[in-house]
Each structure stands twice: as structure tokens, then as C-alpha cells.
Amino acid sequence: MVSNYTAVIVKSNGWYAGFIKELPGAHSQGKTKKEVLENLKEAVKMVIESNYRHSLEGYEKVSEVKISVNI
After folding, report:
1. In this predicted structure, what is the pLDDT of residue 19?
2. CA 60, CA 12: separation in Å to the nearest integer?
3. Mean pLDDT computed over 28-51
4. What distance in Å separates the CA atoms of residue 29 and residue 54, rounded to the nearest whole number?
5. Torsion of Cα atoms, 33 then 5 then 25 then 47, to 10°
6. Which residues, 6 or more positions from 58, have their beta carbon under 8 angstroms from its beta carbon?
7. Among residues 2, 38, 55, 67, which is most buried (max CB within 10 A)?
8. Rounded to whole angstroms, how far apart are CA atoms 38 and 65?
9. Cα separation, 26 vs 30, whole angstroms
């Protein structure tokens, strides 16, 4: 599955930092923009997997359905 996100990148004191606009908690830093973008891809995966695991704790999953949302 491929999803698209908006990466916001800033620069300060020679370092780059970035976050994913649509996904709170997905952020990273690096020495280059390319490094930040690669790190952000991994951060997105980690945040989504973590949110999924934690959201099911203590519950019985009843169904799982794909939805589309245009913002």
C-alpha cells in the first residue's frame, strides 16, 4: 500500500529537521535533506504500526475496512 504525506523540512545550525504534517509524532533529523526524508519514511512506518498496536490493546477487533478521505 502506498500513501502520500507532506514532509515539512526546516534547517537550523547546519542540520535539517522534518515532520509529517498529517501524522503527529512522525519527525526526524539529519545532516542532509535526503537523510531526513529517508528517516521520515521510517518514522511514518513506526508511528502507524505503534498507533495500530496501541489502539487495539484491551479490545477485540470486530472488522477492518479501507476508507478514502479527501482533505
Report:
1. 98
2. 45
3. 96
4. 25
5. -110
6. none
7. 38
8. 29
9. 14
Q: SS3 for 41?
A: helix
The H or E element containing residue 31 is none
Does 71 score more than 90 pLDDT?
no
Question: CA 34, CA 46: separation in Å to the nearest integer?
Answer: 19
| Contacts within 8 Å (CB) and 24+ apart, 32-36 | 33/9, 36/7, 36/9
Minimal CA–CA distance to 40: which of 51, 29, 56, 50?
A: 29
Q: In what order do the strands lie in the sheet with 27-30?
A: 7-12, 15-20, 27-30
Q: Where are the domains of the chain?
A: 7-54
Percent of the chain with pLDDT over 90: 76
Q: Which residue has the cell 507532506?
A: 6
Query: Taking the model in full, what pTM does it have?
Result: 0.82
